[in-house]
Structures are given as C-alpha cells and as structure tokens.
C-alpha cells in the first residue's frame, strides 16, 4: 500500500490522465510519433503478445529522450558483451527518444512507452513484462514505478546518474515524495562525485562514481570523414550554432543584425545552424528567411552543401557530421537558461566550443572543457560570436584546442564497462 504522501501523489497522477491524453493529441499534430501506441502509456498492450512478453529475463532500460537514448546505446553495447543473448525491453517518454531507440533493437527485443506513473499503469506494465532488472538513465525517478519494483523484488538502478544543484533543491522541497523514491532504488551509479553527494543526501544508495557514459561514445567515422571533407572544401571557416533551442536563433539574429543589414553576413564566415528538435526545422527556416537570409537545408544537399548565407542542419543523427564540418561551435541550450547540451560530443569530433552562461545540466563537462582549453565561456550571444571569430583567426590556438578535444575523451573513458560490470554483479548477487 502507498504511504500517505505517495497516496496523495497517486490521486493527482490519476486525475491528470485526461490532461496527458490531450497533451499527446496536441503534440502528435507536429510530431506524429506522440500519436502512436498511446495505450502503452497506460500499461495496456495487445492481448496476443502476452505469452511472449511474459517470459522472464527482460533487461529493461528506460531512456526518456534523445540524449539519454544515445547514452543508453553506449551502455547497451557493453551489456550485450556481458550477455550476448539478452532480451532488451526499451522504454521512452519522447518521440525523438523512441525514434533513436529503434536503431538499438535486435530480433526479440521490445520497445514501448514508459507507463504513466499511476498505480494501475505501473502494475500492468510490470505484470506484462516481468523484467529481470530495470535501468533508469540519468535523472528519471518516478515514485510509483520505483515503489512497485521494490515491492515486487525487481532490482532497479539509476545509471549515468546526474543531479544538478537546481534539481537537487527542487527534490529537497519535495523530500516527502522524492526521498522515499531515491531510497527505494537498488543502486545508483553517478557521473561525478558532486552528483553522488547530492544523491546521497536524498537517500539514494550510491554504489559507484563511474564518470559519464558519453565519453565512451565513438562518433560515426563516415560522418566525420564527410564533414571534414566538406570543411576543407569550404572557402570560409564554418561557425556552427549547435543544437539550438527555442529563442536562441532569435538571439543569434539580433547579434548579427548589423551584418545582415550591411549584406556582409557570409563574407568571411559560413554559418551553420542545427536546431535541437526536428519539429522546429521549418520554424527556424522561416525565421531566417523572414530576416532576409538565403538558407540552404541539409535535406536538399546532394554531394556537397549548397552555397547560401546560412546552412540549416535539418536532419537527425548527424551531429558528428555537423561538428566535423564546423571550425568552431556555439553550444545551444546555453544562451537561454536551459542548461546547455552535451559538450562531450563536440570534443569527440575535435570541435572547439563556445559555451554560454547556462550549462547547469552539464556542469562538470562544461568545467572540464574550459579547464583543458577545448571550450571558451561567453556571457551572451554577441560575445560568443566575437570569441568564435577570434578563435578562427588564431590558427595556433585553434589547433591546440582541436588537439585537446581529441584527447579529452580518451582520458575519461570507462564508464560503460564499469556500469555493465556493476549491473552484472547485481544480477549475480540476487540470482
């Protein structure tokens, strides 16, 4: 039976189900993925598959969105080395995460939405799949889901765990709900010691500090080669606004407004903008065109980028290509108070980065890249553009940053193997 606090939470979650359905219908207009298999979110699955899914042995991994799914793919490679025949149950909460996760599936694997955290949906999910173990990626803590796993004896771990100061303070304010949830986890494997300290303060059973899984990522070699080939063929240095979020393209436009008005935006630099979310590709293209800029979209390129004032990266799964094409990148999500994006991916492609003031979701990686010279810090978009331009005009400093970026990842690898080994030990201990 739920505690009084979780009982109140459960009532609110149940009352919110109609709102969730309405939200999914609205989001499906722009992202059709949100309209597929909606009943899975409420723990309802086709009756004909019950005999197959009820077999025990699922290794369940939950990766909420795109970034967590890519981290999960790194861990999954190491897990499959431990158990070559493992059956993967992969869950997500966002359409981009689910689309990316399809690449990870093998014959016999299963992919569904994570159930809404109501008592009924969670119970149906666990009864239907009966996972041998659950692995939540990075930050996902759902009180009813965790409690139900605990009650059923299903080990549930939080892997590649991170908790920034803002989220920690929020969790403390909801300590009556958050602390029992963290305490009921079987194990937590943190990215950094700072993350571990905050998680322990909430009662989480931290059993290892393994680093960030994303350092173990190997960028697509073909994309890197193609990006570098296009960069070498470009008559001008390429400045990339990478994984930009809503409002940041407008900040960029404001910062280069004078250059646009004087018709000299692309005289010395080639700009490339890659929005974070695919549903914004058309919106960003329209924004740029209404500002009077000529736009060339990646989806329309054939053998090489089409000449234009701004290139628009309107594709998914090609960040290695974009970072390799760029001379310097401006980090999206860090110029608005959104917490930044994954700097490790840029470093793995030997791309120096200008980061804005808001990197709280990747604080350790941001500090590390600044310390080793892979990144520079700007307080706003105009300063970022000025720093990027100055970096491009200093070939010696640029080469040093590229070399530092190439070696950064090698020095911090190993989280995937450490996490997979810890999960293996946990399963052996409870077998």
From TrEMBL:
<protein>
    <recommendedName>
        <fullName>3-deoxy-D-manno-octulosonic acid transferase</fullName>
        <ecNumber>2.4.99.12</ecNumber>
    </recommendedName>
</protein>
<keyword id="KW-1003">Cell membrane</keyword>
<comment type="function">
    <text>Involved in lipopolysaccharide (LPS) biosynthesis. Catalyzes the transfer of 3-deoxy-D-manno-octulosonate (Kdo) residue(s) from CMP-Kdo to lipid IV(A), the tetraacyldisaccharide-1,4'-bisphosphate precursor of lipid A.</text>
</comment>
<dbReference type="GO" id="GO:0005886">
    <property type="term" value="C:plasma membrane"/>
</dbReference>
<dbReference type="GO" id="GO:0009245">
    <property type="term" value="P:lipid A biosynthetic process"/>
</dbReference>
<comment type="similarity">
    <text>Belongs to the glycosyltransferase group 1 family.</text>
</comment>
<comment type="pathway">
    <text>Bacterial outer membrane biogenesis; LPS core biosynthesis.</text>
</comment>
<feature type="active site" description="Proton acceptor">
    <location>
        <position position="68"/>
    </location>
</feature>
<keyword id="KW-0472">Membrane</keyword>
<dbReference type="InterPro" id="IPR039901">
    <property type="entry name" value="Kdotransferase"/>
</dbReference>
<keyword id="KW-0448">Lipopolysaccharide biosynthesis</keyword>
<dbReference type="InterPro" id="IPR038107">
    <property type="entry name" value="Glycos_transf_N_sf"/>
</dbReference>
<dbReference type="GO" id="GO:0009244">
    <property type="term" value="P:lipopolysaccharide core region biosynthetic process"/>
</dbReference>
<keyword id="KW-0808">Transferase</keyword>
<dbReference type="GO" id="GO:0043842">
    <property type="term" value="F:Kdo transferase activity"/>
</dbReference>
<feature type="site" description="Transition state stabilizer">
    <location>
        <position position="214"/>
    </location>
</feature>
<feature type="domain" description="3-deoxy-D-manno-octulosonic-acid transferase N-terminal">
    <location>
        <begin position="38"/>
        <end position="217"/>
    </location>
</feature>
<feature type="site" description="Transition state stabilizer">
    <location>
        <position position="138"/>
    </location>
</feature>
<dbReference type="Pfam" id="PF04413">
    <property type="entry name" value="Glycos_transf_N"/>
</dbReference>
<dbReference type="InterPro" id="IPR007507">
    <property type="entry name" value="Glycos_transf_N"/>
</dbReference>
């Amino acid at each position: 039976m739920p505690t009084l606090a979780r009982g109140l939470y459960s009532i609110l979650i149940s009352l919110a189900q109609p709102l969730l359905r309405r939200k999914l219908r609205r989001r499906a207009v722009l992202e059709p993925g949100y309209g597929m298999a909606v009943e899975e979110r409420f723990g309802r699955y086709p009756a004909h598959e019950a005999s197959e899914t009820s077999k025990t042995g699922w290794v369940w991994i939950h990766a909420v969105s795109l970034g967590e799914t890519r981290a999960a793919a790194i861990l999954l490679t190491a897990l499959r080395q431990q158990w070559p025949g493992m059956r993967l149950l992969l869950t997500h909460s966002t359409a981009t995460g689910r689309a990316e996760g399809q690449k990870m599936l093998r014959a016999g694997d299963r992919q569904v939405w994570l159930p809404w955290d109501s008592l009924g949906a969670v119970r149906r999910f666990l009864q239907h799949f009966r996972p041998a173990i659950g692995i939540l990626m990075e930050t996902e803590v759902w009180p009813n889901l965790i409690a139900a796993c605990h009650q059923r004896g299903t080990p549930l771990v939080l892997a590649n765990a991170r908790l920034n100061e803002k989220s920690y303070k929020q969790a403390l304010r909801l300590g009556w709900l958050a602390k029992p949830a963290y305490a009921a986890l079987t194990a937590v494997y943190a990215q950094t010691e700072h993350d571990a300290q905050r998680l322990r303060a909430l009662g989480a059973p931290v059993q290892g500090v393994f680093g960030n899984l994303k350092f173990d990522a190997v960028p697509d070699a073909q994309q890197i080669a193609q990006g570098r080939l296009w960069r070498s063929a470009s008559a001008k240095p390429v400045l990339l606004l990478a994984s930009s979020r809503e409002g940041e393209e407008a900040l960029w436009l404001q910062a280069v407004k004078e250059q646009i008005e004087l018709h000299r935006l692309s005289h010395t630099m080639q700009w490339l903008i890659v929005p974070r979310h695919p549903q914004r590709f058309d919106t960003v293209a329209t924004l740029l065109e209404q500002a009077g800029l000529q736009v060339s979209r990646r989806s329309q390129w054939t053998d090489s980028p089409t000449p234009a004032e701004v290139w628009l990266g309107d594709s998914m799964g090609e960040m290695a290509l974009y970072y390799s094409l760029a001379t310097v990148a401006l980090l999206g999500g860090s110029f608005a108070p959104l917490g930044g994006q994954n700097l490790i991916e840029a470093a793995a492609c030997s791309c120096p980065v200008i980061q804005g003031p808001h990197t709280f979701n990747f604080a350790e990686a941001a500090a590390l890249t600044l310390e080793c010279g892979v990144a520079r810090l700007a307080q706003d978009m105009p300063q970022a553009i000025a720093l990027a331009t100055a970096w491009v005009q200093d070939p010696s400093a640029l080469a040093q940053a590229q070399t530092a970026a190439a070696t950064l990842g090698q020095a911090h690898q190993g989280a995937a193997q450490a996490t997979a080994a810890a999960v293996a030990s946990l399963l052996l201990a409870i077998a």
